[in-house]
Automatic annotation (TrEMBL), chain A:
GO terms for biological process: positive regulation of translation. It holds the Pfam family GTP_EFTU. CDD domains: EF4_II, EF4_III, LepA, lepA_C. NCBIfam families: lepA, small_GTP. Residues 2-183 form the Tr-type G domain. GTP binds at D14, H15, G16, K17, S18, T19, N130, K131, V132, D133. One of its GO terms (molecular function) is ribosome binding. This is Elongation factor 4. It is found in: Cell membrane. One of its GO terms (cellular component) is plasma membrane.
UniProtKB/TrEMBL annotation, chain B:
The keyword Ribonucleoprotein does not apply. The keyword Aminoacyl-tRNA synthetase does not apply. This is Heme chaperone HemW. It is found in: Cytoplasm. GO terms for molecular function: 4 iron, 4 sulfur cluster binding; coproporphyrinogen oxidase activity; metal ion binding. Pfam families: HemN_C (PF06969), Radical_SAM (PF04055). It comes from Paucihalobacter ruber. It comes from the Bacteria.
Length: 598, 376
């Protein structure tokens, strides 16, 4: 056990985590040239394109140091706030962490909150100053920031460049010398932490775990404590670039488990694996059932595809346990599903995966958070409102509560004013303001979660010229003055466009929604009035003028081919539109309210 | 029965709205004509079994050609192709090239139809579009043309920014006063990468207004109907017996050979087009290589093209023809898709023919797209 090191990497998006991981794999000879592919650990196409790690992964490396052979387990962590629970479980599986900080951009909010998580778990932190080769790098100042933050010595900070390979050997040495080996007792009953799982269509769910005590053996009868299910450990092994089956994984080590589980939701991150016959008395603390934060309707563009959409969503759920959905119906869109997501990014990913992997063109309705509504009749009984149309009539409504979050924003001192006015505009209340360094300020706000859903990230980036980072955690429900703003197209309410909005902003947002829809809905053969309404009261109106001319004047020998292709393209675009009443609405119009400031 | 289109890629000056292929430097005119003659020889095999019914000089500005050049091209066609006894031979011409003497001389050549790019009889309009002629030349050229030619067509543009309905009506009336038997009339269209587009983007010229264009189109239809013109294609109007035979071939799916830079050809199942570059065209033809790209049409491509062109014409889209040429699935799809537009009075069925109504005509691209099938 004293030759094992378990560590993770804490970094902000784009600070070079994946590239650094590749370098470590290189330096330890864990990858053959043939296997080399940029950013090895991100193996979903989508991840590679977006440059973020969505699902965490783990990999084992061998490394000889001062004549002794070590096993290094790198546990990769997702870098987006939507997936912060998964990050916390990865951290719990380690004894140490590399804190990667971009030498040009310094420390970001995401990094800090994950760093706090790591410190709470008593991880040994190895600060790495990455991208020191960049012309814009500011190593002295950023080193000072790190020293301030960690209370370490400047010499503890390792200057590195994942791109050029600078500092990689020093990092490997620090992992071995500074991170403590795991503790644990092989003779105790099995106690292992599930920190991730991956769905494999051929082998079922692969569970990734860290053994704290005891050992896990091939064909052992095991039990998941939180779900209470027992399984046979069909295969256990260690994770290299390929899986290496073993007969046993002992305390301190990291591995994978295959039991023939077919559905991802049976494997819960944070759950404890133990021996079915001789169970441990200690479930690992910190298990949570991950709850969706954002809800939206997903509907097929073509109503006939409903059953196909259902089966696609079920398949998606097999490998994404955090996706939840129930059938719902909309007067405008017919049959579809109300889906719960971890956050906005998660929602976008699901939508994209439906299109890419299942060739399903879908309409996603205006996302919302989960509200609690109380009626005058039953003022103590919360009605959970995951869809604006479920909000009881105003006359019978006692009050509405909405989820609040504690937001942490780190920015340059220059932008404090801008960030504050944005947050106040978003109904935030400032709770704390700390100067981390003379140049960097951490601001804390209590804010409604719903305000984060609506174009908050983009505006935060704009007002801070990109120099603000953001993280949040839920802090419970609070009473709020909310009204439902409905949208009428051609005098017909389109329920899928309804949104719950704070009464003070309702007029303003209603007006903007009408303007945005006017921009996005193509002209048709008749005038289309767009109205925003609260109850029966119209608060805003726009008109899309009828299409008068839709023909090119010339169509001679040289025009036919080009013109046909143009019209075919137009037709393809139309396939992505949804007919509501006699109005054709493009897919993106349903998300319009998210982008009111574009 | 087939046509030959000859593209003459030269102009004296560039009209602001034009996105056709042309050069305002006439330096290579001799070489292009030489290459056109050679291309005609090279491609005779493609028309082995076809009889040439029409020859059409388009551009660019074909009236920039000398009599000798026109003759040598027409003679080459006669030498290497089977030409019908009574072919339609059209020359597109600009008023500033059409002196009385020139028209007289042209009438002695094999050319038997003139298509004159008048566009407007108002100086303001002509200046705004950067046409090379003035209003006086416009009128004089039609008068002279009508004296020596039996078959004359006039081009008019409507929907010009700032041009009132009154001015448009005046343009129509002036044209009718010459008794021309054919009129082509186009809505001013802002094409990408044209000077007009740039001026509109910069705010120098007011943008075109669809409402104005639609109203002026209706005005045109009313005036020409009274004057006994038949509206046989969206932008084309002819007296009985004076429809453009060459252009009708495009809309009826007949084959045609396009000669010269950027010219398009069609043989019933393939479309091909020559390169849009005079120098490359010249050099390539010199080396006996046709610088062209080919696209093979699928059944669905051909169906879509038939819908698109058919809806623009008086011949409409024949449901029987769709069934015969493309099959029952296409026919059923067509009828299913068309129903909505029939209900909205944009289309109607006359016997087996699907036609656009007055209301539907100006929306026919959108309707066609809706009737399209997409290749998977």
């Amino acid at each position: 056990m004293k030759h094992i090191r378990n560590f993770c990497i804490i970094a902000h998006i784009d600070h070079g985590k994946s590239t650094l991981a590749d370098r470590l794999l290189d330096a330890t000879g864990s990858v053959t040239d043939r296997e080399k592919q940029e950013q090895l650990l991100d193996n979903m196409d989508l991840e590679r394109e977006r440059g973020i790690t969505i699902k965490s992964h783990a990999i084992q490396m061998d490394y000889e140091y001062k004549g002794e052979q070590y096993v290094l387990n790198l546990i990769d962590t997702p870098g987006h706030v939507d997936f912060s629970y998964e990050v916390s479980r990865s951290i719990a599986a380690c004894e140490g962490a590399l804190l990667i900080v971009d030498a040009a951009q310094s420390i970001q909010a995401q990094t800090i909150s994950n760093l706090y998580l790591a410190l709470e778990n008593d991880l040994e932190i190895i600060p790495v100053l990455n991208k020191v080769d960049l012309p814009s790098a500011n190593p002295e100042e950023v080193t000072d920031d790190i020293v301030d933050l960690l209370g370490c010595k400047p010499e503890d900070v390792i200057p590195a460049s994942a791109k050029t390979g600078l500092g990689i050997d020093e990092i490997l040495a620090a992992i071995i010398e500074r991170i403590p080996p795991p503790t644990g007792n092989v003779d105790e009953p099995l106690q292992a932490l599930i920190f991730d799982s991956v769905y494999n269509p051929f082998r079922g769910v692969e569970t990734y775990f860290r053994v704290l005590n005891g050992s896990i053996k091939k064909n052992q009868l095991i039990k998941f404590i939180a779900t209470g299910n027992t399984y046979n450990a069909d295969e256990v092994g260690t994770l290299r670039l390929k899986q290496f089956p073993r007969t046993e994984i002992k305390a301190g080590d990291v591995g994978y488990l295959i039991t023939g589980i077919k559905e991802a939701k049976e494997v819960k991150v944070g759950d404890t694996i133990t021996d079915a016959k001789n169970p441990t008395q200690n479930a690992i603390a910190g298990f949570e059932d991950v709850k969706p934060m954002v809800f939206a309707g997903i509907y097929p563009v073509d109503t006939e595809d409903y059953e196909e959409l259902r089966s696609s969503m079920e398949k998606l759920q097999l490998n994404d346990a955090s996706l939840v959905f129930v059938p719902e119906s909309s007067a405008a869109l017919g049959f579809g599903f109300r889906c719960g997501f971890l956050g906005m990014l998660h929602m976008e990913i699901i939508q994209e995966r439906l299109e890419r992997e299942f060739d399903m063109t879908v309409i996603t309705t205006v996302p919302n958070v989960s509200y609690h509504a109380y009626t005058t009749k039953n003022p103590d009984q919360a009605i959970i409102v995951n869809n604006p149309t479920d909000l009881p009539e105003p006359s019978s409504l006692n009050r509405v509560e909405e989820p609040y979050i504690k937001a942490s924003i780190i920015t340059k001192a220059d932008f404090v004013g801008n960030v504050m006015s944005l947050c106040i505009d978003k109904r935030g209340q400032i709770t704390n303001q700390t100067y981390l360094t003379p140049e960097r300020v951490e601001l804390n706000f209590d804010m409604p979660l719903a305000e984060i859903v609506f174009d908050f990230y983009d505006r935060l980036k704009t007002v801070s010229k990109g120099y603000a980072s953001f993280d949040y955690s839920p802090i419970g429900m609070r009473a709020s003055k909310l009204v439902r703003v409905d949208i009428l197209l051609n005098a017909q309410t389109v329920d899928a466009l309804s949104a719950l909005i704070h009464a003070d902003n309702a007029y303003h947002i209603g007006k903007k929604m009408c303007e945005k829809l006017k921009e996005l809905i193509p002209r048709q053969q008749f005038d289309i009035p767009i109205q925003a309404a609260i109850g029966a009261k119209i608060i805003s109106r726009e008109t899309i003028k009828a299409l008068r001319k839709d023909v090119t004047a010339k169509c001679y020998g040289g025009d036919i081919s080009r013109k046909r292709k143009l019209l075919e393209k137009q037709k393809k675009g139309k396939k992505r539109m949804r007919q509501v009443g006699n109005v054709e609405i493009p897919q993106q119009a349903f998300m319009a309210v998210l982008k009111l400031n574009d | 029965m087939s046509g030959i289109y000859i593209h003459i890629p030269f102009c004296k000056q560039a009209c602001y709205y034009c996105d056709f292929h042309f050069s305002t430097s006439l330096k290579k005119k001799d070489l292009v004509v030489e290459a056109i003659v050679k291309e005609l020889k090279m491609r005779q095999a493609e028309f082995k079994n076809e009889r040439v019914e029409t020859i059409y000089f388009g551009g660019g500005t074909p009236s920039l050609l000398s009599f000798h050049e026109i003759d040598s091209i027409i003679n080459t066609v006669y030498k290497f192709y089977k030409v019908n006894t009574n072919p339609e031979i059209t020359l597109e011409a600009n008023p500033d090239d059409l002196s009385k003497e020139k028209i007289k001389k042209l009438s002695k050549s094999a050319i038997n139809r003139l298509s004159i790019g008048i566009q407007s009889f108002f100086e303001e309009d002509l200046k705004l579009m950067n046409r090379a002629h003035n209003a006086k030349e416009a009128k004089a050229s039609i008068t002279a043309a009508m004296k020596h030619f039996n078959n004359v067509s006039v081009d008019l543009i409507y929907g010009i920014p700032g041009a009132s309905h009154k001015r448009w009506i005046k343009n129509i009336e002036t044209t009718l006063s010459f008794n021309v038997p054919h009129i082509s009339s186009y809505a001013l269209t802002v094409e990408p990468k044209t000077a007009l587009k740039k001026f509109i983007d910069k705010g120098v010229i007011e943008n075109v207004d669809d409402e104005q264009a639609q109203q002026q189109f209706q005005i045109l239809l009313e005036h020409l109907e009274v004057a006994d013109f038949i509206h046989y294609e969206l932008s084309n109007f002819g007296k009985e017996g004076f429809f453009s035979r060459n252009n009708s071939a495009y809309w009826q799916g007949k084959s045609y050979l396009g000669i010269g830079p950027s010219a398009h050809s069609f043989n019933g199942h393939e479309r091909s087009w020559n390169i849009r570059n005079n120098s490359i065209y010249i050099n390539s033809i010199k080396n006996e290589i046709l610088p062209s790209e080919v696209e093979t049409l699928t059944v669905t491509d051909r169906y879509n093209e038939y819908i698109m062109t058919g809806l623009r014409t008086i011949w409409g889209v024949s449901v029987d023809k769709v069934e015969m040429e493309f099959g029952k699935t296409h026919k059923n799809y067509l009828l299913k898709q068309a129903q909505k537009h029939i209900n909205e009075h944009l289309l109607y069925l006359d016997d087996d023919k699907l036609l656009t109504t007055k209301k539907g005509k100006f929306l026919s691209d959108g309707i066609a797209a809706d009737l399209f099938l997409l290749n998977l």
